[in-house]
Design a protein that fits this description.
three-stranded antiparallel beta sheet; single chain; 127 residues; 11 strands
């Protein structure tokens, strides 16, 4: 515990480019040992490449727009979410995310874990 450490603020201009996956833009706000937080934007009609987050559990909050997550064998598990929804992506879960809506989506993403935060892959095992 560090009781003398101050609270810090990260403005939109302070965010830096995070690790990228085709089809989405990650903006890193906070990167500490064991935690990552940022904003992810996906254009309308786009689908990201397949990826996973290694040993990180990921929490996603949909601020604006639509989110479609595909995971599981052959990508057969589909979850749709909208503003106000939270999603949990377990450690190592291969997935891709898209925006089936007509406006850019904005997602707040927080990850807890260790190691590489983004691992791009060819896709999940066939179902």
């Amino acid at each position: 515990m560090h009781p003398a450490q101050p609270v810090t603020r990260v403005t939109p201009g302070d965010r830096v480019q995070g690790e990228q996956t085709p089809g989405m833009t990650r903006e890193q706000a906070i990167a500490l040992e064991g935690m990552w937080a940022g904003l992810v934007r996906t254009e309308a009609g786009m689908m990201s490449g397949w990826h996973h987050h290694g040993d990180y559990d990921t929490s996603i909050y949909v601020v604006r727009g639509s989110l479609r997550m595909e995971s599981g064998p052959g990508g057969s598990r589909v979850v749709d979410a909208g503003p106000g929804d939270f999603l949990h992506v377990p450690k190592g879960a291969i997935h891709r995310e898209g925006n089936p809506g007509s406006e850019e989506s904005h997602l707040i993403v927080v990850r807890a874990g260790r190691g590489p935060a983004v691992v791009n892959v060819d896709g999940p095992a066939p179902g």
